[in-house]
Specification:
Layout lengths: L1 H41 L4 E2 L13 E8 L5 E8 L2 E12 L5 E10 L17 E8 L18 E2 L4 H7 L4 E8 L17 H38 L1
Parallel strand pairs: 1-2, 3-7, 5-8
Antiparallel strand pairs: 2-4, 2-6, 3-4, 4-5, 6-8
Length: 235
């Protein structure tokens, strides 16, 4: 019975380790393709955000929009840190000129001062202006909230644009505009830079899995040789 189990188990374990290595290589290829596409989009001329809903595949594209900030629907994105300090990102709707459509503007990071019972109240810039930045398509994050926050909530755990748009009394673009670090009306803006680190990490994981497969083969071979010696001695 033990031999039968070994006959099936050893190849299965080896195949699993090797397949995990190839899976990591596939993930590396996917990440590399995404990075290449993102870099290509980031190098394109800035697009104008207007009343037409932006289509898919625009994340990372430079954009500019004319209009005005609107305090209705502004909120703080919780649990954002900067240089180890807790704080928030300020998300403010921006009314696109000659329309009632908005696009959310991430104006950057502000610190948590004092207690959460007394949240910051960032001012709303007045007047029409042209702003620039980079489009960002937020992903849904993990949350302990049992229900999505109400539209009027001043604090949100996640930047869930879909649920925000569903509760908003206006149409909104399916992207957030990260305000340019050169623009006024913002706070601390150190936006994440996508690099090849994640690609290299997946490749390193692949090497580890392949290495474990190799070590597994060596261990099994050594065990088999030892068993054969024991059998010869007993005979």
């Amino acid at each position: 019975m033990r031999r039968v189990l070994s006959f099936f188990l050893i190849p299965a374990v080896f195949a699993m380790l090797v397949s995990l290595g190839f899976w990591q290589l596939d993930r590396a290829k996917e990440k590399q393709a995404y990075l290449d596409e993102y870099a290509a989009r980031a190098g394109l001329p800035a697009i104008a955000v207007e009343s037409v809903t932006l289509g898919p595949g625009q994340s990372g594209v430079a954009a500019q929009v004319v209009g005005r900030f609107d305090g209705l629907g502004q909120f703080l994105w919780d649990n954002r840190t900067y240089e180890g300090r807790p704080g928030f990102h300020v998300l403010t709707p921006f009314v696109i000129r000659d329309t009632e459509m908005r696009i959310l503007i991430d104006r950057g990071w502000i610190p948590l001062e004092g207690s959460r019972e007394d949240l910051p109240r960032p001012s709303i810039p007045l007047g029409q202006r042209q702003i620039e930045g980079q489009l960002y398509e937020p992903l849904k994050g993990f949350t302990l909230e049992q229900a999505a926050p109400e539209f009027s909530s001043p604090l949100r755990q996640n930047l869930d644009l879909e649920s925000y748009a569903a509760s908003a009394p206006f149409d909104i673009q399916p992207y957030v505009l990260r305000l340019s670090s050169k623009a006024k009306d913002g706070f601390v803006r150190v936006w994440p830079v996508i690099t090849e680190t994640s690609v290299q990490r997946h490749r390193a994981y692949a090497v580890q899995w392949f290495g474990m497969a190799g070590v597994f083969v060596v261990i099994v071979a050594a065990f088999i040789r030892r068993q054969r010696r024991v059998i010869k001695k007993s005979n």
